[in-house]
Amino acid sequence: MGVKASDLKDLIGKPVILQIDTSEDDDTIDDFIEVVGKLETLNEYGVVLKIREVGPIMYPMAKIIDVEVEEKRPGRITKRWLSNTERPHVRQHLADRHGVPMTILNILDSRAAEEYHGNIKHDDLGHGHGEKPPARRGRPPGS
Predict the structure, then answer these.
(1) CATH number, domain at 61?
(2) Dihedrals phi, psi of 13, to nearest 5 degrees
(3) Of 69, 101, 117, which marks where a domain is finished?
(4) Are residues 16 and 63 in the same domain?
(5) Which of 33, 54, 102, 142 has the smallest set of CB atoms within 10 Å of its CB?
(6) CB under 8 A, 24+ apart: contacts of 7-10
(7) Cα–Cα distance for residue pair 7/72, rounded to 1 Å
(8) Which domain holds residue 103?
(9) What pLDDT shows up at residue 47?
(10) 48-96: pLDDT as tens digits
(11) Cβ contact 111:87 at 8 Å
């Protein structure tokens, strides 16, 4: 195949995605699988991939079609709590935090903008207003 041990030395200790040839015939690639894990060690005969909740598994170098570094998974996003938006700043808040088009905001006065904002449900948005509620420990989200 196209992958050599020397190509992978810099990937030891990093999370990778291996494409493994699963076809019976060594001359053609009919089918493959992708496995994700941390590249533990390697030599010219194969690699040892540590797969989460499975453990280390050895894959022969001859069956490895391709290798790529797995991108780091994004962290959890938490909700930010802002003070209540006061009337003179509501229109700007609607533009900055809610993506309301300027064509709409330019025809609203502060009172109408405040009413518009009051009708927006903030339950699943990236921010809320007022005091941050106490943490709910021991309960799954949504309960």
Answers:
(1) 2.30.30.100
(2) 90, 0
(3) 69
(4) yes
(5) 142
(6) 7/67, 8/39, 8/42, 8/47, 8/67, 9/42
(7) 21
(8) 80-129
(9) 93
(10) 999 988 899 999 998 999 999 988 777 788 888 888 888 889 999 999 9
(11) yes
Q: What CA–CA distance (Å, rounded) separates 64 from 124?
A: 43
Q: CB under 8 Å to 49, separation ≥6 — which residues? A: 16, 18, 35, 37, 38, 39, 40, 56, 57, 58, 59
Buried b (16+ CB within 10 A) or exposed e, 17-54: ebbbbeeeeeeeeeeeeeeebbbeebeeebbbbeeeee
Beta strands in the chain (DSSP E): 15-21, 32-43, 46-51, 55-60, 64-69, 80-82, 127-129
Query: Is residue 138 included in any domain, yes or no?
Result: no
pLDDT tens for each residue of 84-140: 888 889 999 999 999 999 999 999 999 999 999 999 998 889 898 888 888 766 656
State the total domains in the chain.
2
Element spanning 5, H or E: helix 5-8
Query: Does one domain contain both 63 and 95?
Result: no
Residue 27 lies in a domain: yes
| Domain membership flag for residue 57 | yes
9 and 65 in a single domain? The answer is: yes
- Asked whether the whole model's pTM tops 0.90, one would answer no
Q: Report phi then psi at 25, rounded to 5.
A: -80, 125
